[in-house]
Design a protein that fits this description.
Blueprint: E1 34-37, H1 48-51, E2 57-59, E3 64-66, E4 72-73, H2 79-86, E5 95-100, H3 105-114, E6 116-117, E7 122-124, E8 133-135, E9 140-141, H4 142-145, E10 148-151, H5 156-167, E11 174-178, E12 192-195, H6 202-216
Parallel strand pairs: 1-5, 1-11, 5-10, 11-12
Antiparallel strand pairs: 2-3, 3-4, 6-9, 7-8
Amino acid sequence: MPKKSQAPAFTPAIIPGTIPSPETFTDGLPLPKIIVFDLDYTLWPFWVDTHVTPPLKAKDNNTKSVDRIGESFTFYPDVPSILLSAKSTPPHPITLATASRTSAPDLATTLLKQLHLPPSLATTAPSSSSSSSSKAPAGKRAYDIFDYMQIFPGDKKTHFQRIQKACGVAFEEMLFFDDERRNRNVESLGVVFWEVPSGVSRAEVDRGVWEWRRRKGREAKET
């Protein structure tokens, strides 16, 4: 899927408490031990090494960053709630990682440090699954919510091999969201790949988790 030749318009900041967590995070069925995300056109709608003109400066309570020519950059709308709800999922948090092949790793890291997850964002499961809600950590940097980060050019199998070496979790317990089909080659390791051509959303996370469950034969509750 071709990408836009210029940086897309800024996405308005999330109104706290308006985006529910993915249903699969609270339905009581098995979840991957690690969920891994690409960055460009997966967590945010741009190529950081192409569309961003450094330096970057955080704006609007760290809900966006602005580059040298005044362009604004932030996450896709559902992303902050997804990341926060992954860390508040009972009975234990989901481990999160990034696997990006950008040629501007320092710039991507800077952006992850500047973008904060809204301090008053409440992640709530749909009423059909649960009536309770959990409060998100206050003013948490997106950078700090990831347990493992691999950001460098190259074959993403290398990214996953490094993640696996660092955490010790089997590849079969990993789910990967990426917008580029070529990165499906990580499935040769045992990782489940879910393509998100329009970026990560709550619905795409649910579809990816269900595919992981189907592929691993784990579609029922486990004791």
